[in-house]
């Protein structure tokens, strides 16, 4: 079973549901591309041969707000495409079994025009019956690996990632290779599972953050500061790596073509059009909400909190860094069709 | 929207998941009848015209243990009937949006042979797309009304239920009539919703406790004791009634025949075969776990706790009462087929 790191949703000021602005922006940026995929590429006649129900899945839905916005948008695009009032929609919200589905269910809009289901489980395994899903959506989720590649923790491996917490920032190419290899294995599982579940002609849009440089390095250096101050054992940092890989269009193309169950209808790497002035502090609080589960899981809550607090304190430095690196962070959009 | 009273699942010694023995016995008693309904009455050819997936719903699943046992049992019976390995099962666990779905999901067996979905919402409303469900199961749930009939609270109504908390124990026939009328309205909604959702030839088994006398009277008298001791305002008791009606075979037959979408394949009122010696204290703790949500909602937690504690203290008296009234408590089983 894949490792899971529940998103921080303790209802505090730093909780995910109050700090998912970055993910929301990524979602908003991809809105038109999702709509275009539905309007231009989806063949409803093939899919709806024997029923009037369209089944939609959001994979990695987390506790809510962004997923609800995305699903509303997908349903609206499907309605606009297929002007038929007898069409019914069933949306399956999926995330790890440790996700707070109670919070998600309680935030569902009353006036929704779809039937709701929550589906617990890793999207690297099967989640749905064969040929039962018509449209899959997943935003800011597939960059989470099922686990960290084990070589990173192995002193004897050339991919040992000593003193670092990610491939980004590491100069050791073997570290990057280990991440790529894990990503390819995971994606193969992901595509095989979806190939069984999605009807012929059904579609899948995947949206993933893309970066060649990463704000997360700042968390790594806060951890190393704690080591240098004698507050944290270095071996604890060596035994920790972030299970995230940011796939490039080339990475995705390679795994999809090898898998061969899906055709690529569109693949695009985009960068925010306007030079959005992000408040570094808000961004770090956002990242914090995402990473806290992983950090607490490994270091315990005291070190996790101190790491996050220290990183947030460096917001001026991060702000300068962000201006210099703005062009390195974008998002990958990919629309696939089940052959 | 129907009123909901989340089951007590605070993981305490009195929580529902640790105190659902009564519901488990009702379930065990009906096990063979559920199996018979599947083996003898279900026509798989009609249902599975275009897919290999059987969709099963458990309505009023609560936080788990009994529902998981029931669904395992239903899936096994379906497998035994239809010896075909390509058959897939998708189970929809339904309960109010306030139900603890997180607890349910975390207690799912790893080796289950069905796909899981959680569906939040009142079963008096629509829950699923049209013609999407093959088999509905509901145990110990349909006796919960969507709300209490309003006449019970109305001083000017002949059905005003002064000083009482239920129709059982009241000598006023208008009180009973008000409950029956609410039950009929609710069941009409229930059957209409299911008639849309269940495929032609699909089946529904409903299991409900039946009693003409009730342990709950003891809770009522504990509440009145608090009134007599000046610890509770009588108007608070007058403005409270338990939203439960225990339908008889005649009640069910009447609503099903009027509704006309379902045929009755079997209807039976059964009483425990062996004279099970129930420990009154355990039974009261069980009832307490069920009623606490309703009581806290109306009286606040302090009075609710005191009422339950006082009632549990009377276990010897209740024990004697139970022996004298054993033959009055049974369970109603009904198997319906969508015409």
From TrEMBL, chains A, B:
Source organism, top-level taxon: Eukaryota
Keywords noted in UniProt: Magnesium, Metal-binding, Methyltransferase, Transferase
Signal peptide: none
Entry protein name: S-adenosylmethionine-dependent methyltransferase
Organism: Capsicum baccatum
Biological processes annotated in GO: methylation
GO molecular function: metal ion binding; methyltransferase activity
Membership in a protein family: Belongs to the methyltransferase superfamily. Type-7 methyltransferase family.
Keyword Methyltransferase: yes
InterPro entries reported in the protein's UniProt record: MeTrfase_7, MeTrfase_capping, SAM-dependent_MTases_sf
Pfam family, one: Methyltransf_7
């Amino acid at each position: 079973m894949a490792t899971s790191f529940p998103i921080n949703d303790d209802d505090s000021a730093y909780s995910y549901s109050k700090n998912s602005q970055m993910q929301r922006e990524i979602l908003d940026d991809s809105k038109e591309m999702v709509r275009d995929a539905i309007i231009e590429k989806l063949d409803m006649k093939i899919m709806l041969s024997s029923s009037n129900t369209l089944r939609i899945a959001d994979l990695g839905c987390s506790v809510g707000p962004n997923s609800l916005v995305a699903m509303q948008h997908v349903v609206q695009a499907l309605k606009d495409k297929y002007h038929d009032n007898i069409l019914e929609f069933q949306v399956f919200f999926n995330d790890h079994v440790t996700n707070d589905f109670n919070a998600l269910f309680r935030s569902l809009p009353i006036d929704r025009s779809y039937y709701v289901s929550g589906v617990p489980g890793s999207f690297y395994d099967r989640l749905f019956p064969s040929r039962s899903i018509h449209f899959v959506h997943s935003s800011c989720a597939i960059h989470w690996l099922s686990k960290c590649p084990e070589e990173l923790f192995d002193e004897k491996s050339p991919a040992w990632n000593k003193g670092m917490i990610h491939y980004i920032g590491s100069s050791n190419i073997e570290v990057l290779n280990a991440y790529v290899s894990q990503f390819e294995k995971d994606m193969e599982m992901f595509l095989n599972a979806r190939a069984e579940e999605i009807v012929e002609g059904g579609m899948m849009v995947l949206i993933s953050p893309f970066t060649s440089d990463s704000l997360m390095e700042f968390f790594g250096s806060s951890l190393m500061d704690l080591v240098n101050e004698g507050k944290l054992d270095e071996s604890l940092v060596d035994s920790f790596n972030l299970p995230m890989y940011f796939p490039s269009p080339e990475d995705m193309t390679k795994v999809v073509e090898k898998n061969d169950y899906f055709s690529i209808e569109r693949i695009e790497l985009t960068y925010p059009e306007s030079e959005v002035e992000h408040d570094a502090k808000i961004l770090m609080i956002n990242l914090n909400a995402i990473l806290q589960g992983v950090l607490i899981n490994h270091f315990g809550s005291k070190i996790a909190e101190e790491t996050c607090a220290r990183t947030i304190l460096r917001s001026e430095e991060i702000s300068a860094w962000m201006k210099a690196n703005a062009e390195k962070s974008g998002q990958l959009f990919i629309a696939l069709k089940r052959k």
